[in-house]
Amino acid sequence: MTTEVFANESWMLISTALVLLMTPALALFYGGMSRQKSVLNMMMMSFGSLGVVAVVYVLWGWSMSYGTQDIAGIFSNPFEFFGLRDSIGSSEAPVISKYGYPTVIEVGYQLTFAVIACALISGALADRVKFGTWMVFTALWSTFVYFPLAHMIWGGGILSEHAHSVAAWMFGSEDGEAKVPPVDFAGGTAIHISAGTAALLLAIAVGKRHTFMRTAHRPHNLPFVMLGAALLWFGWFGFNGGSAHGAGWTAGLATLNTTCAAAAGILGWLLAEKLRDGHATSLGAASGVVAGLVSITPAAGVLMPVTSIILGFIGGFLAAFGVALKFRFKFDDSLDVVGVHLVAGIWGTIGLALFAHDKGIFTGDISYGFKLLIVQIVVAALTMLYAGVITAIIGFVLEKTLGWRVDCAVEHGGIDAHVHGETAYDALGMEGK
């Protein structure tokens, strides 16, 4: 084994652990933002996603996402590598991925992306949905939304840079390759735009909490929120840096850009808060971290540090105002998934065309950058369309079969005590009061 291969294997294993940490970190982040009577339920929705999606990914998710038997450019045959059959080999004869390290490492890495993508949606549904319905939803959504999107964008499908690119259709092709391939370095479309779109559709379909816009819903534990944001930032180094698929210059650039964008996201959000409300809050700082991270995700490998600061700052600023959309349009996105992940995800996906190194509209190539901008807009729109339609279908089927809402009394008294039979704080007692 060469030193380079060993370094790449080590970095990808570390990145896998970092991205896995993001789901428990999200549980803390969302849990702190929830009511004290439903904090455990909110955290359990993240852990439930971890349990369900990890299992289905091994069974058919990897095959649907990265199998070789493409079906209409949308997904791969789920039975080709069912249960990872014939896809990872053994210690004596490992199957090697296209990146030069064993495929079993890549499977573990991609599994963690599938988990966090689904868990993100839960923040839009706080305080009011049945835990069992949520668990079934995670299996269905990952199967019919995330796995196909992963295939379309990264696995050689219709939105990937390798085959049948949107850019090739729009601007022609040269020797079978797209002149202006779409860019999604680490998941702006497949994860943040898709999860944000799903959150919007479900928030509307499931309906508002009974106290939405009648009672102030304040985070019950801001230290939880800030700790969760800090751990998400830490895990994001694997999310973005690991998407370089090796321990080299690109991984270094992606991790540096991640720090720059997250830091600038704090500043952008706090400025927006100060201008709008007159206060710069700890919740705003934590949310700004996440907005900056979301913004840089699709662009981490194609921007430079200074332009990452610009992208992250604008992302934080836009997301801070984006969270107010739920009050303007009266949909109950409980923990601001739409404002943070959809708004910042769209901005990062489109904004990278402005600042891509040597190829962006403002950074060296106006003609190429303009074409890339159009491509990125189209890909973002197609992602929203696909995720929105399939999520709406899944949500409708579950409403007609299992039902989404808990009883009004359960919502008022707190899901923790009524559904899980426990409370987060002993002082509340088992009545959840």
Automatic annotation (TrEMBL):
GO cellular component: plasma membrane
Keyword list, A-Z: Ammonia transport, Membrane, Transmembrane, Transmembrane helix, Transport
Main location: membrane
Localization: Cell membrane; Membrane
Domain Ammonium transporter AmtB-like span(s) in chain numbering: 11-425
InterPro entries: Ammonium/urea_transptr (IPR029020), Ammonium_transpt (IPR001905), Ammonium_transpt_CS (IPR018047), NH4_transpt_AmtB-like_dom (IPR024041)
SUPFAM superfamilies membership: Ammonium transporter (SSF111352)
Protein name: Ammonium transporter
Source organism of the structure: Corynebacterium kalinowskii
